[in-house]
Amino acid sequence: GIGFIPAKPRQDNSLQDGTKRPLSEQEKSVLRLIAMAYSNVEIGGKLLISTKTVETYKYRVMEKLNAKKRSDLVKYALESGLINREDGKLYKGDQLTMKNCVQGGML
Is the Cβ–Cβ distance between 43 and 34 less than 8 Å? Predict the structure, then answer.
């Protein structure tokens, strides 16, 4: 049968000069859709990738950005221009919307 296949060792997210590794285009696509309140299943369907792959990209993005929660990703996506305030309702799972972000002083 197939034996155990070890996972790739985790890469350091810093470049030699100490700056963070930039997000790949696929990571940016996943981040944008996360920030626009799409579920992992919906993102997978839109990008034609599996839900597990979406979760992997989300994990990598969170690591690269030192994000602790989805609202950190929303804030980054807005500040970096990946989405704008007209992109609609944000993360619906925890009821984090653009309105809540603004009222809560997050943005």
Answer: yes
Question: pLDDT tens digit string along 69-82?
Answer: 988 998 999 999 99
For 20-30, b where at least 16 C-beta lie within 10 A, e where not — what string?
A: eeebeeebbbb
Q: Nearest to residue 53, comparing CAs of 96, 12, 17, 24?
A: 24
What distances in angstroms separate CA 45 from CA 10, 15, 49, 54, one per listed residue?
Answer: 27, 32, 7, 10
pLDDT of residue 102: 53
Identity of the amino acid at 52: K
User: Does the reported pTM lie above 0.85?
Assistant: no
